[in-house]
């Protein structure tokens, strides 16, 4: 099966599948105006697009479809879910899907073969829902690993907010909303440096978590993302612009020589990051999990990545709550690797507080 790995612009949108109400909304119109050359195809539901989802032919176009297709939908169910790891709460999504193409990404696990960005256009309702949720929580009663004083809301569980900001103002609207809520804080992980976000004036109420892994792994696995050294180099600018800057050390992929390359990465962070970034930084560590269906899809477009990701000798099966056949590193190997990585942090980046590791 041919694999098209030539560099391509992040967006070259040719087709926009849109629910009529989403296309007619102010946010929908903003997206349509940004891509005036795109063909608009009306759909009943952003979840049911047979031409797009579950079409095995799309495996060959896995990365290309992310730049050429967008979906506009109205998010029907609005709820903030408790989390307790990356954040106290997972905010209702403002988008689902991503134009980047990390080979291990869990977002497409629920969407069949193609995973372009669906923009949820009812951002005003999403913000209003969050405002009510924040108000009902009141003050945070006690510090936890998410934050000492603020309720933290992850606004990018199924998307990359820095990439979404290239398409429309959903990310900007969320950052602006959170700066008015002194008891809460937005948070999102990203693998894309979008300097437009520097102008949003978050006033400390948005935490950006730059995802990092050794550059050698990222070059193979983080397809279409900003190179790791550029993500590190951007951290100081984001802090100066009013963001809290944390790091998402993930996924940790076990392979020959992983300790050496993580040590080098931590050493590079220690060298490159300004003292002010180090003073407020924290990190989460997430060991790789993978999934049989995604493994089979990846074999169709990026088999080299699977040599690193699919390691049955090191991994064990775990059927998740929704029935997905996931795999994770076996418990003993995982615990030993986490202890080793914590040791490397103590040695090369002792200023980096680990919020949690799993
Ligand atoms: S940046 Fe995040 S959401 Fe986008 S493909 Fe990578 S892991 Fe998935």
UniProtKB/TrEMBL annotation:
It holds the Pfam family SPL. The lineage of its organism: Bacteria, Bacillati, Actinomycetota, Actinomycetes, Kitasatosporales. It comes from the Bacteria. Keywords: Lyase. The keyword Lyase applies. InterPro entries: SPL (IPR049539), Uncharacterised_Spl-rel (IPR023805). It comes from Kitasatospora arboriphila. The keyword Iron-sulfur does not apply. GO terms for molecular function: lyase activity. This is Spore photoproduct lyase family protein.
């Amino acid at each position: 099966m041919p694999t098209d790995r030539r560099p391509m612009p992040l967006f070259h949108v040719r087709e926009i599948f849109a629910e009529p109400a989403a296309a007619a909304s102010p946010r929908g119109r903003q997206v349509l105006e940004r891509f005036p050359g795109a063909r608009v195809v009306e759909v009943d539901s952003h979840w049911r697009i047979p031409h797009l989802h579950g079409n095995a032919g799309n495996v060959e176009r896995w990365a290309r479809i992310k730049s050429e297709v967008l979906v506009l939908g109205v998010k029907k169910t609005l709820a903030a879910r408790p989390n307790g790891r990356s954040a106290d709460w997972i905010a209702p999504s403002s988008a689902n899907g991503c134009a980047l193409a990390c080979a291990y990404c869990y977002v497409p696990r629920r969407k069949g073969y193609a995973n372009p960005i669906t923009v949820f256009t009812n951002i005003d309702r999403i913000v209003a829902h969050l405002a009510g949720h924040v108000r009902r929580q009141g003050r945070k009663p006690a510090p936890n690993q998410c934050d000492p004083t603020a309720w933290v809301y992850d606004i990018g569980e199924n998307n990359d907010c820095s990439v979404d900001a290239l398409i429309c103002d959903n990310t900007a609207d969320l950052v602006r909303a959170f700066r008015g809520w002194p008891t809460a804080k937005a948070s999102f992980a990203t693998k894309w440096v979008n300097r437009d976000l520097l102008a949003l004036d978050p006033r400390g109420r948005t935490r950006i978590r730059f995802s990092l892994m050794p550059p050698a792994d990222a070059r193979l696995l983080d397809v279409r993302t900003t190179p790791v050294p550029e993500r590190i180099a951007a951290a100081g600018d984001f802090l100066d612009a009013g963001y809290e800057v944390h790091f998402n050390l993930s996924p940790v992929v076990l392979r020959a020589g992983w300790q050496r390359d993580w040590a080098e990465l931590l050493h590079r962070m220690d060298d490159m990051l300004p003292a002010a970034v180090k003073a407020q930084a924290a990190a989460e560590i997430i060991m790789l999990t993978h999934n049989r269906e995604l493994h089979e899809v990846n074999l169709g477009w990026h088999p080299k990545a699977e040599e690193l990701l699919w390691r049955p000798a090191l991994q064990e099966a775990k059927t998740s709550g929704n029935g997905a056949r996931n795999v994770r590193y076996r418990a003993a190997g995982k615990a030993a690797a986490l202890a080793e990585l914590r040791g490397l942090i103590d040695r090369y980046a002792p200023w980096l507080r680990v919020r949690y590791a799993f």
